[in-house]
Write the structure tokens for this entry.
Amino acid sequence: MDHYLILDIGGTKTTAAVFTENGEPVKDLFLVVPSKTYEGCDAVFENTVAAGRRVLKETGIDIKEVKGIGTAAPGPLDHETGVIINVPLMGWKDFPLGPELQREFGVPVRLDNDGNLGALAEQRLGVAKGARSVVYMTVSTGCGGGIVLNGDVYRGFTGSAGELGHTTLDMNGIPCNCGSNGCLELYASGTAMNKRMRRDIEKGIRSKAFDDIGYDKEKVSGKILGKAAGEGDGYALSFLREEGRYLGTGLAGFFNLLDPEVFVLGGGITHLRKWFYDEMIRTIERCAVSPVSPDRIRFSELNDKVVVYGAYCLIKEFLKG
Ligand SMILES: [Zn+2]
């Protein structure tokens, strides 16, 4: 049977898997290793190759049985040539990752960024399966995203479409490292939530969420918020309603711009949906120009595997032409 090697190179960890033609991970194995970020271009690349070889060995699949490699990498990148344009975190500048992997393994390689692959996976296999147009956003450390229009990934004129997290919510807001101010991810991401909690501890705000961590600013997390919200803590509940307003404002903008059939929300934030969902839907109802029925807003079930599944779809469809 034909197989595909999948390599998902993230900022902190790299996941390697072997998929069958039918999209099943062989031995259900998702090998996860640290990405060796900051160790430089060669170290990150060699680490990726080693992860690929190891997952082939552990699944018992010979490289001769592998038709191609689907890769997810941080952008900006040129998905046609496989060149990573500039990722300081990895030490990659104009780095031909695709061609280098092809030379190493001797099979065709396709690559794309995780936002685009997330959108592709959700539209092909996930909760948006069958929808013609899909917007996907993952909310964890940051807010990444991707767009599928009329069944294809929409990359835009220069390949930079889908930067959903950098939608401006407040032009006088917090400065963002993209150069703008008040971007969605500065309010809605996990990083932003943690920052707000730390600030609230400094302000002396009392909450069950903070009782649990002894008011230690280093220990704030979405998890403590969820737990406190579950216990009816007023601070946690209002904090998560506010999160719903940020997300809803962003989503209303996406619906106004693209009117996708389905919007998929993924990432760590989905574990807290119970407490932000109603406010998010209310905000969309208020801010979107045309009505958006709530069943068009769905939560990812592929979760932390979504990018790996997207990379499988990418290489499989490329080879099938
Ligand atoms: Zn920004």
